[in-house]
From TrEMBL:
GO terms for biological process: L-amino acid transport. It comes from the Bacteria. It comes from Streptomyces phyllanthi. The lineage of its organism: Bacteria, Bacillati, Actinomycetota, Actinomycetes, Kitasatosporales. GO terms for molecular function: ATP binding; ATP hydrolysis activity; branched-chain amino acid transmembrane transporter activity. InterPro entries: AAA+_ATPase, ABC_transporter-like_ATP-bd, BCAA_Transport_ATP-bd_LivF, P-loop_NTPase. Belongs to the ABC transporter superfamily. Residues 13-246 form the ABC transporter domain. Pfam families: ABC_tran. This is ABC transporter ATP-binding protein. The keyword Endoplasmic reticulum does not apply. Keywords: Amino-acid transport, ATP-binding, Nucleotide-binding, Transport.
Length: 248
C-alpha cells in the first residue's frame, strides 16, 4: 500500500536544522535535524519538555518552523499546513485518545478515508487495516468506546493508515496503557513498519520504544543530542542513566 521508495538521499522524511517555538516564547527546537528512512521506526526520547511533541507538530504542519527545511521523499514541503502534509504522505496520531466513542470501530476507521473518492480504494485500504490489526476486524461493529485503551489506540492507527501515508507520526502511543497493552501496541507499530509505513515515534516509555525502533534520537535543549541504532543507545549505560530511567 505505502510507497517504500524513499528519496535519492534514502530518507522519506527529513527535518533539517529546524528552529521552532510558540508565539513570542523562547524557541523550543534550536537547530534540530531528524531523518526517517523508508521502512524504519525512528524513536525520539528525552526529558519532559525537551520538545518531542513539538517535533511531530512541525513534521505534520501543525506548527510552522521559523527556519529549517522539511523534505518528504526529497521534496521540500516546508510551510505546508496539516492538510497538505497529509496529502504529501505524513499522518499524525496525536497524544491521548481520539476515537469517537459513540461511533463504531468501522465508522471511526472509515472516517480516516473520508477524503478518498475512489470507493474501491477505500474498501481495499479497509481490508488492509483489518488484516493488519486483528482487533479492528474482530470489533468492527462494536462501539469504539467499549474497547480497551490499547484497542482504541489500534483503531487510531488503522484510521491514520486509511489515507495511505508514507510515514506515521505517533505521539506517546503507550500513554495510559498497562505493560501488557503497551506490548501489544508496540507489536502493532512494528507490523505497520513491516507493512511498508515508516514511523516517527515519541515516547516517555523510552526503553520499550527503543526496543521496537530501528534508530533512536535523544533530544536535549531543542537539538538531537545523540542518535544512532536503537540497540546501541539501549546498551549505552550513560544514556540509560540519564534518559532511560536505568540506574548504573
Ligand atoms: N501550544 C503550546 N503553546 C506554548 N508553549 C507550548 C505549547 N506546546 C508546548 N509548549 C512548550 O514547548 C516546550 C516543549 O513541549 P513539548 O510538548 O514539545 O515537549 P515534550 O518533550 O513532548 O514533553 P513531554 O514529554 O512532557 O510531553 C515546553 O516548554 C512546553 O511548555
Amino acid at each position: 500500500m505505502a510507497s517504500d521508495s524513499g528519496s535519492s538521499s534514502g530518507f522519506l522524511l527529513e527535518l533539517d536544522d529546524i528552529r521552532a517555538g510558540y508565539g513570542r516564547a523562547a524557541l523550543v527546537l534550536r537547530g534540530l535535524t531528524v531523518r526517517v528512512p523508508a521502512g524504519a521506526i525512528v524513536c525520539l526520547v528525552g526529558p519532559n519538555g525537551a520538545g518531542k511533541s513539538t517535533v511531530l507538530k512541525v513534521a505534520s504542519g501543525l506548527l510552522t518552523p521559523r527556519s529549517g527545511r522539511i523534505l518528504v521523499d526529497g521534496e521540500d514541503v516546508t510551510g505546508r499546513g496539516p492538510q497538505r502534509m497529509l496529502a504529501a504522505g505524513v499522518a499524525h496520531v496525536l497524544q491521548g485518545h481520539s476515537v469517537f466513542r459513540e461511533m463504531t470501530v468501522a465508522e471511526n476507521v472509515l472516517l480516516g478515508g473520508y477524503t478518498l473518492r475512489d470507493k474501491a480504494l477505500v474498501a481495499e485500504r479497509a481490508a488492509f487495516v483489518r488484516d493488519l490489526f486483528p482487533v479492528v476486524a474482530q470489533r468492527w461493529t462494536s462501539l469504539a468506546g467499549l474497547l480497551s485503551g490499547g484497542q482504541q489506540k489500534q483503531v487510531e492507527f488503522a484510521r491514520s493508515l486509511m489515507v495511505g501515508p508514507r510515514v506515521v507520526l505517533l505521539d506517546e502511543p503507550s500513554m495510559g496503557l498497562d505493560p501488557r497493552a503497551t506490548g501489544v501496541v508496540f507489536e502493532q507499530i512494528v507490523r505497520m513498519r513491516d507493512a511498508g509505513t515508516a514511523v516517527l515515534l515519541v515516547e516517555q516509555n523510552a526503553r520499550r520504544a527503543l526496543e521496537a525502533a530501528d534508530t533512536g534520537c535523544v533530544l536535549d535543549l531543542g537539538r538531537v543530542h545523540v542518535s544512532g541504532p536503537a540497540e546501541e543507545l539501549l546498551a549505552d549505560s550513560r544514556l540509560g542513566e540519564l534518559y532511560l530511567g536505568v540506574r548504573p
